[in-house]
From TrEMBL:
Catalyzes the reversible adenylation of nicotinate mononucleotide (NaMN) to nicotinic acid adenine dinucleotide (NaAD). This is Probable nicotinate-nucleotide adenylyltransferase. SUPFAM superfamilies: Nucleotidylyl transferase. It is an enzyme of class 2 (transferase). The keyword Transferase applies. Transmembrane segments: none annotated. GO terms for biological process: NAD+ biosynthetic process. It comes from Calditerricola satsumensis.
């Protein structure tokens, strides 16, 4: 089975995440894409991240209508920073027959040389990267990267949180079920209007 792993903080999940996952699933003929919700993202240690149960629920809602998309909560059940190499080692033990592809946007792709145990990690997964506005396709000597083209979507969770806090509508920028959940649970505070 060919499985795409799409790791993210997903605070909140947005339509560019879904479009990226679908684009890679289609291009590489993956059987499934697992959205791996980061417990404590290693490079966001000092940032305030929304509670894991909200991010997990929002991702569940976001992927619910896609038959090949799944949510993986393995990193939420492990204390400490969510290093991808730990996740992939565990998933390979649990699913010895799966072939794993790790999906990243161009911003994260450029950071791969700094990831924990990257020399081991690159032997455990194939990296797949997508363009992201503002980030060039990186040249990474020694780290094979499968580049997948897709229409660039200038959307980020940081920007969406800012919009919500400013009282702006994010309808159509996040799946409708996610929008309703974040409003009902005031994940990013009360909507101003
Ligand atoms: N607009 C986008 N185009 C392509 N890839 C994206 C886009 N937004 C996020 N990604 C990728 O999705 C993965 C998960 O990203 P994450 O959950 O951190 O969302 P984000 O929008 O980058 O959030 P933040 O702004 O809080 O950093 C990362 O690999 C990131 O590069
Ligand atoms: O393992 C690492 O060293 C590492 C360093 C930075 C990011 N990651 C992973 O990259 C994925 C995307 O991160 P983020 O914070 O942009 O959502 C997420 O699964 C992180 O755990 C992993």
């Amino acid at each position: 089975m060919k499985v795409g792993l799409f790791g993210g903080t997903f605070d909140p999940p947005h339509v560019a995440h879904l479009a990226a996952a679908e684009r890679v699933r289609d291009e590489l003929a993956l059987d499934e894409v697992w959205f791996v919700v980061a417990g404590q993202p290693p490079h966001k240690m000092r940032d305030a991240v929304s509670p894991a149960h909200h991010r997990l629920r929002m991702v569940e809602l976001a992927v619910a209508d896609h038959p090949a998309f799944r949510v993986c909560d393995i990193e939420l059940r492990r204390p400490g920073p969510s290093y991808t190499v730990d996740t992939v080692r565990a998933l390979r033990r649990q699913h010895p027959d799966a072939e794993f592809y790790f999906i990243v946007g161009a911003d994260m792709a450029a950071d791969l040389p700094n990831w924990r145990a990257i020399d081991e990690l690159k032997t455990l997964v194939r990296f797949v990267a997508l363009g992201r506005p503002g980030y060039a396709r990186p040249v990474l000597p020694g780290i094979p990267l499968h580049w997948v083209d897709m229409p660039l979507l200038a959307l980020s969770a940081t920007e969406l949180r800012r919009w919500i806090r400013a009282g702006r509508s994010v309808r159509y920028l996040v799946p409708e079920a996610v929008r309703q959940y974040m409003e009902a649970h005031e994940v990013y505070g009360k909507r101003k209007r």
